[in-house]
Structure formats: structure tokens, C-alpha cells
Amino acid sequence: MAAGAVVARKKSAGPPSPIWGTLRALWKDKQRVLFKPEYTLLVAAVLWIAEIGINIWVIHRVAYTEIDWKAYMDEVEGVINGTYDYTQLKGDTGPLVYPAGFVYIFTVLYYVTGRGRDVRLGQYLFAVFYLVTLLLVFRIYLRTSKVPPFVFFFMCCASYRIHSIFILRLFNDPVAMMLLFVAVNLFLDGRWTLGCCFYSLAVSVKMNVLLFAPGLLFLLLCEFGLLRSIPRLSLCAAIQVALGLPFLLENPLGYVSRSFDLGRQFLFEWTVNWRFLPEEIFLSRYFHLALLGAHLSMLLLFTLYRWNRSQESIIALLKDPAQRKHTSPKLTADQITYTLFTSNFIGVCFSRSLHYQFYVWYFHTLPYLLWSGRVTKLAPLLRVLILGLVELSWNTYPSTVYSSAALHACHLIILLSLWYGEEAAVDLHKRK
User: Fold this and answer.
1) What is the 3 state secondary structure string of 354-366?
2) pTM metric for this prediction
3) In angstroms, what CA-CA distances link 361 with 150, 172, 206, 236?
4) Crossing angle of helices 380-395/401-420, nearest 10°?
């Protein structure tokens, strides 16, 4: 009778559930899950859900540090009170130096957070910005399918500095980058006009997004030629004028000189990347001009020999695609991402100064730059080491001679790897 009961229990135990079977299969094949890009969606979903808990934990367990939030609120309060002359708008940390899009977005945050007093609510809003940014970045990596999923752990959960920039400091840089990644996703979907709108909105929050501009211009010329690119470039300019109109009508020179001040002088005490230089060289205009020359030269080299993967010359790209000698294939997700991310990265490498919040300018692009098909001569462990050294350099406060030198060394390795990558060399050989 007992034996019969055992047989009955065995018969009643049905087949394992599909979910349990899938989980067991994934566990057995965990190496493929971690290293094969086709599992990007699965790993990204798990990490994104984990990030919800991490952000809540950080907000409640790690002390908020006041740096610029109060200054932002003072600046937009001046606008709310009727001051439209940019030269008269300032906060605790100095004058307002961001374009008009910043003013409108942070005015909304001003009212939502009770005139900026409810900092905790502000942190939760920036946690939402962080999670939205991650979704946008994961979608880019899903479309390009170049990066092994295990790398995403280092891109989100493991970065103290990025969590700090978003939810412990409430800087405006993350807002600009979130809008930029919306634009990149639209470009990948072939929605170039709408993408240009969001790109211009990102520039209107902080002008560091202009570092992507050379790459975007090249892509527009590839896709449309010069004449059909002009309406999209004009749209970008029109958005800037429309957003800045109240301030342009009051004091046009004051608005342009403050919000797009390309000659702004940075303080040596805050530099992350040039600590090993004497302060007099750091402040020298000749040094700044040398960096600008190196920046433009590197952009030109990448434009001629790395971005242009067609059989056409750069001059031929000015023509309408239908009038070119060779039929131009549609831009791939990889080409769009590579061109935009390298354009920005070159700008970061030759920046006159990088402050701690500037890390978010290129942090989410580093895995792609290191694991794209063009970087084949670096062992995976070395790539992870480079990510770790970059993170360590940005987490060293105050910066030191060694942390700045290590950051430049990592940048140089990435730049050289992108230049000498096998795919780039093959493309150059084909054009010859």
C-alpha cells in the first residue's frame, strides 16, 4: 500500500514549469548568457530591476551632498521673478552659464520640489532620470549587439561616481545626456528629424553635447547629402533660438556669451585630467589652443580614415545620395553609434578640464568603445582593467598626479585601439 502511495505521488508530480525549465537551462549555459550579445535583453532587464533597489538604498543610506542644486534653484528663481538678462542671473556658485533649456527644465523641478526645498523628492526624480537613461543606453547596446552582457554590470551597478552624479549631487549633466541618448535612439530608428530635435534640446541643457556634433554632421551628410541636411541643421538652430528668445530679446550678447562661453576658464583645483601639469600651463591660452588643434586634427583623421567606410570621397558625400557614383548603403546601427561615440570621446580626451560630474559625458559609451568590433587587439581582461582604472581615476578625490596620468593613459589606449582596430584597417584597405 505504501509503495502504491509513492507511485501515485510520482504520477501526480507533473512536468516542471516552463519558467523553471528556462531558468535551469540558463544556469547550465551561464557562460553564454554572460558573454554572448544575444542575451543582452535578459541581462539588461535583471540589472535594470536591481538598479531600482540600489537607487532607493543609496538615497536613504548615503548622505546627500549640496554642490549646485541650490545654485540651480537660485538661478531659475531669478527668471521666475522676471529677470531675463543672463548677466544678472546667478546662484551661490556663480553666474548662470547654461542655455535656456536648462532654465525651463529646472524651473519645472523648482515647482515640483517646492521651490527646491524638497531635496529628497529631487533625488527620486533624478533616480527616474537615471533609470530612463539606462533603458535608453541598453537599447543602443541591444541594437548594436557588440558588447558581452557581463560588461553591463560595470556600466551600472558597480559605478559609485555615476550614482553620485545623478542622485547625490543632482547635476544638470545627466539631464543633458538623457536627452542625448533619446536622440541617438531616434537616429538608430531612422527618425533623423525628430532625433535632431532632441539633440538640440540636449544642447540647450548643457553645451558639452556639442562634442557629438562633428559625428552627427558627418552622419547627416552620409544619409542625406548637403542640401537635404540643411533643413535638419536649421531645425537644430531654430530650436536654440526659440528656447532662448526671451533672453535674446533682453540681452542677446549677454545670453550667447554666458550660455555658450567656449572660452570659459576652469579652476585648477577641480581638474580631474590635468593635475600633473603646473597650474600656469593649465591656465595658459597657448595650452588651450594646442588642445583645440589636437582635437580638430584627430576629428579630421577619424573623418577621413575611420568614419568614412564607403567608397566615396568626403567631397562626394556633399552630393545627394542618388547622385553619387557608388550607391550608398543605409547606415547601420553600428556605424551610427561608432561615429557619435568616437566624436564625443575625442572631445573628452582633449578637453581643457574635466570636472567630476563630467564623467557622465562618456561613461555609458565606454563599453561600446572598448568592445566594438574595431577593438580586437585588447584582451577582455585588459578591457575590464581599463574600465576599472577609469572608474578609479574619477573616484579619486581630490585628483592626484597619478590619477590624472592613469586617466590619460586609459584614454590613449582606447583611442589607439579604435584607430588600429582590424575593422577600421579593413575598411581603409578597401577604399585604397
Assistant:
1) CCHHHHHHCHHHH
2) 0.91
3) 22, 11, 11, 20
4) 140
Which residues make Cβ contacts (< 8 Å) with residue 18, sequence separation at least 6? none
d(CA 325, CA 393): 48
Q: Is 39 a residue whose pLDDT tops 50?
A: yes
User: Distance between CA atoms of 84 and 246, rounded to whole angstroms?
Assistant: 7
Whether residue 11 has pLDDT greater than 60: no
Q: Report residue 431's pLDDT band, with 50, 70 and 90 as the boundaries.
A: very low
Quote the cell numbers at residue 56. 532607493
H-type alpha helices, 82-118: 100-112
Burial of 153 (0-12, 13-18, 19+ CB in 10 A): middle
DSSP string, 212-242: GHHHHHHHHHHHHHHHHHHHHHHHHHHHHHH
3-state secondary structure 40-87: HHHHHHHHHHHHHHHHHHHHHHCCCCCCCHHHHHHHHHHHHCCCCCHH
- Of all helices (H) and strands (E), which one includes residue 276? none
